[in-house]
EamA family transporter (Streptomyces pharetrae CZA14), 310 residues
Amino acid sequence: MNATTRGSLLAALACVLVGGSFTANSLLGDYPYAGGQFLRYALACLLLVPLAGPGAAARLRALTPRQWARLALLAAVGMVGFNLAILAAERTAEPAVPGVFVGCAPVVVAVLVPLLDGRRPRRAVLYGASLVAVGAFTVQGWGRTDGAGLGWSVCALAGEVGFAVLAVPVLRPLGPRLLSATVCGVAALESAAAALLLDGTGWLRRPDATETAALLWQAAIVTVIGFVCWYMGMQRIGAERATLFSGLIPVAAACTAPLVGTGSYGLAQAVGSALVGAGVALGSGALKRASRQRPLPVHEGARPLARERE
């Protein structure tokens, strides 16, 4: 298995896990949201620290103030801000609305990353990203909203884009595991600050059994495994191609929603899933690689070249 295939599988797994977290969110409706994010990221940080590898402290000390600012912005925009924007959008809009905007992230990243690098967007990646966005829209559909819902949905899109783009310059010096541990620690602090501001003294309480299970799933599976897999995949195939797999988030959410009775999977979801898969295959170059590896047909009566030379 080459690095590109391995990176694609890691990015796909990460996005499937994140899609499942949307279903877990539906079980935390009565828990203080920012406080729940604090518990999620704090626990994930504690689990990730032993996995950071040797020399982690030295690598953190070597970071410049600008890199620390980028990490703080990554946690604020791509993690805490993204989650709170989704929550705010769903107060006046149906969940499909922010989902559709987040589904456009592959298109934005396919254009933004090359521009930041001073090059033109790759045509295949851009076409694939557009197909992924259409597929995500087909899976989720559209719903009721107002101006505030649209505005917060745009913020959620910015958070999804920032989670990939802001990580690019700090991924190499830290590596996927230490980067994940660091941003989770920063996000926990930012979540606590947001919780105190939004919920006051009632920002944290003891979760019940269902809420505990949902928070443990988000911390140990979605955050620890999902974040590390995401950044390992992005390290191998780049932010442009990795973000294509974010189209799997609504697909995974649609597939897991029936398990907890919060949705159904029908024809529209099946068609949208197929479009997402086609867009990922086109943008990641899987179709091109498959055509290269397909053996040429041997016509009847023709002899292999090696035998002709005998």
Residues 295-310 have pLDDT under 50 and may be disordered.
